[in-house]
Amino acid sequence: MPDVRRCRPPGRERAFGARPWRCRRKLLIPPFWITAVCLVLVAVWPSSTPVIVVGFLFFIFLNAASSALTAVYPLEVFPTSLRTTGVGFATAMSRVGAAVGTFLLPMGLDRFGAEFVLLVGAGVLALGGLVSQFLAPETTDMDLARAARAAREGGV
Fold this sequence. Notes:
Number of strands: 0
Mean pLDDT: 79
Strand content: under 5%
Helix content: over 70%
Number of helices: 8
Oligomer: single chain
Shape: elongated
Distance between the termini: 41 Å
Order of helices and strands: HHHHHHHH
């Protein structure tokens, strides 16, 4: 069997070894706020091509970075007895949200315009950031039982 430790790309320790960026909360919360600001900037200056390009580039990259936690974080915050149900419920609600958003987006664009829809998106992101700021526990370097206990106790 090959030794997978030799397959690591060079510079990995320097790039990913920085302790602050390995913290789950630091990967979860700032993208909410930064992407909300990006959407507000694009909504406020819709005729500025540089603002639109830079705003959506930040949005795309930070959205992709925070999406990496969707497979890890829910597993860590639910207690063992509810873990599969909790992850299934969270996944189902994300699908419902995606379906509702896909259905409402064209209607919102037709009725209210792009600026309003972008501001609503920014509001949803800000609400998610606010809820995460106060309720999301730090689960890095915790075993699953301890992480679930911290989540249940509302520990940040």
